[in-house]
Amino acid sequence: MTLSSEDWNREEVERWLDEERIIFVEVTNKEILEKLERQDLADRLWAIFSRGDGIVVFHTEDDGTFSKINEMIQDINWNRLGLKPEIFKVVPRELPFDLKVKISRIIYGLVPIPDVAPNSKMSWIINTAEKQYLKSLKRIMQMYEPFFPVKATDDESVEHILAKYFIIHSLIKRTQRERALPENLHEIEWDKIRELIETEPETYPRPDVLYNPENEHFEFETLFGESFRKITNKLNEYSQAKPEAKVRIVVEPITVLLHLNEFKRQLAGIKKGKLYSNLDVEYYTFDLSKGRLMTLEEFFKVTSETVKELNKEHDKT
């Protein structure tokens, strides 16, 4: 299989990752690089590729390190190993600072990014956005924990719990608007709120969050290392066990970007009545700039503008 193969798609990449046939190597420590012997590298590469095709991605931030790794790989006696390598140098395109910030914010829920230097690398800006993203979600969790402890399953990740609290935050904001609740959390009658909003209710299917006033079932999905079929299976479950249910699938922005075509196809099928016609299905993602859930249609509009800017940059090269 090669990158030009028609079979090469994201699901295949995910399968290769699961099978450890795609390996990422960070080459940022020059001391380790200086101690690295060609034979040690050859032995490791042979161990990786002895089962067949595979990909090793060496990530470095300077040409000198790349040249040294490339030279070592070229000097390996590949015939003796019974392997034939193909080596590609991938250099990310340099983007305008404003566009770097926009892309980073889209990946992490439009989170506000504090001041970063205009000469910052893309990786630095993305890492800063990720830190702000997690900081914002944790702040929301800490804000509601004393009043509204969520139910969690035994194997539930921190990521999943943070998402539940963000959904709750969005629903409480909605309830404050619709039912004239106090803005001050200390003045809210939380017993009544817990009647309106439940986490992990004893129902089947069992949603992450149930909003009783509208009987909306909120399901948070990550899909990391999993195919889009997980969402399809979840909707099939509701379609069979609870027809006419209002199902709200919530995903992180990065999940939308990784599965963009699948989301667009499924949304189109639902709108045309070809998919899940016996359900009321809506998709949402995080908008941390406003502390709310936004529809995927809104998210697509935001991303489309940035894609246009990216295309303009591409046309310049």
Give a quick precis of the structure.
By secondary structure, this protein is α/β, with parallel strands linked by helices.
Describe this structure in words.
The chain is of the alpha/beta class and 317 residues long. The protein folds into two domains: 10-81, no CATH class; 109-311, no CATH class. The protein contains 13 helices and eight strands. The strands form two sheets. Strands 3-4-5-6-7-8 form a six-stranded mixed beta sheet. A two-stranded parallel ribbon has the order 1-2. A hairpin with a 4-residue loop joins strand 4 (209-211) and strand 5 (216-221). Helix 6 (97-107) packs parallel to helix 7 (122-144) and helix 7 crosses helix 8 (158-179). It is elongated.
Supply database-style keywords:
single chain; 317 residues; alpha/beta; 6-stranded mixed β-sheet; two-stranded parallel sheet; 13 helices; disordered N terminus
